[in-house]
Each structure stands twice: as structure tokens, then as C-alpha cells.
Amino acid sequence: MDTERVAPEPHRYTVCAYEDVSIKEFYKGVFSDVYIFFHPFIKPVTIDPKLFSSETNIDKFQIINHCEMVTWKEFLVLSGMKSFEELDIGLRTRILGLKEEYENKEFKEIINTVIEKENLLPPTEGMLPELLINNLLGAIKKEKYDWIWVGDEFGTERKLEYIDDLIDQDTLARHNLFTHDNSILITTHWDSHFSMICSDDKKKIDRIIERCNLEGFYSDDYTEIYWSVRNTYKG
Q1: pLDDT at residue 35, as a whole number
Q2: pTM of the complete model
Q3: Reduced to 3 states, what is the DSSP secondary structure of residue 172?
Q4: How many CB atoms lie within 10 A of CB 109?
Q5: How far apart are CA 124 and CA 98, in angstroms?
């Protein structure tokens, strides 16, 4: 007789917080502070933007060397949108990432119009942006780490990588990065345009934010993965 196989819960220092629960509650007892940082819009400068919509494989170094970042704050100015919440909802609507009652097609169309007018590419969702990966890895190195674990979203697989190799090559295939002493986690929700830095040492997070010039905000006790929806529709 077959026995039902039930996998154990993943170690929370290796995975992204679950939806519909407070992020800080999910990491309680593991990490005390969580910083949400936005994935920037991409502005091709010395590369043909049409290549991004073709079958051409654009690597990390082409993006780093030939594109610039446009922050969410800068996009708000370009678009006339009023808040990060509006922008996040519009981005989620573009990728069909919200229930119909939370979608906002007006925000989506505003984003599409500005992207076309300003020759921009939208932020990546579900993965660390190429424009930030090397900065983040370099900032972790400065915290006295030479190696980092790279894990899958379910906490079932992990590989120990030498940080310099990840910086010098374009081989980062997964986007849960955590240190060997379990003190820093960088994780990305699969359907979101932002990532999170989690730690029990806020000073470490602050140093990474400063070194990488990240844009975002610290989670409070009520912040969830769908923070923009909760702030806009649920109060």
C-alpha cells in the first residue's frame, strides 16, 4: 500500500514569504527586518531595443553595458501616476498577475504608453534584474562572504556558488540567494516586480541598500507580498 508523501516545510531562511500572510510574520524568529526593493525599468541606450523582443539571447553583460536604470520614482514623474501602489498594480495587471477585481487597466495603459514613448522596457518579474545582480553580489562580498547558496523557490534544491564566479559569468539560474550562516536572504516572488533583502541585522541591510542605491521600503508588521493591493483596496 502506497503511503502519501508529504514534503517538510522549507527552511524559511531559504525561500520567499508566502502570499496572504504578513512578510514579517512569515520570517518571525528567523529574520527581524525585510527590505522590499523595486526592479527598475530598463532604458536601452547603445543597443537596439528591438533585440529584446526578438529571439536574440540578450545576456546580463549586454544589459549592464548598454542599458540604464529608470527608477520607479522617475517613472511616476514620467507617467503622472500618484504612488508606488498604483505603479505596482499597473505592472501586475500587465502580466495578468491579479484577480479581476483588483486589476486596473487604466494604470496598465498608462504604463504601456510611457514605455512606448520613452523607449523603455518594463521591470523583470520573478527574477533579480540584471542591472542589479552584480551590485548585490558585490555588496554581499563586502559583508565578508565569498560564497553564497543559490536555491530554488521551493527550498528543495540549493547549490553553493563562489560569488566572484556569479559576478564574472552569466550563470545565475535561480533567485533565492542566502549566506552560509543564514544571516542574509535575497529572494524574489515569482509574480512580482520587486525582491526582498531579509536579515536579523538591519545594519547589514542598510549597507547593502546604500552600496547598491536600492529603491524601496522596509516592511512593517502588516506588509504582504501584495502590499499594493492591500494598501489600495483593503486599507
Answers
A1: 98
A2: 0.95
A3: coil
A4: 13
A5: 16
- pLDDT tens for each residue of 59-81: 999 999 999 999 999 999 999 99
Name the residue ranges covered by the structural domains of the chain.
23-38+127-230, 41-123
d(CA 87, CA 7): 37
Residue pointed to by grid coordinates 556569479: 166
Helix (H, G, I), strand (E, B) or coil at 192: coil
Q: What is the pLDDT of residues 129-176, one digit of tens each?
A: 999 999 999 999 999 999 999 999 999 999 999 999 999 999 998 889
Contact 146, 162 (CB under 8 A): yes
Q: Which residues contact 17 (CB under 8 A, 6 or more apart)?
A: 23, 26, 27, 34, 187, 189, 196, 225
Q: Which of 107, 35, 45, 104 is nearest to 70 (CA)?
A: 45
pLDDT at position 192? 96
8 Å CB contact between 121 and 47: no
Task: State how far the Cα of 63 lies from the Cα of 65, in Å rounded to an integer.
Answer: 6
Nearest to 190 by CA among 97, 69, 60, 53: 97
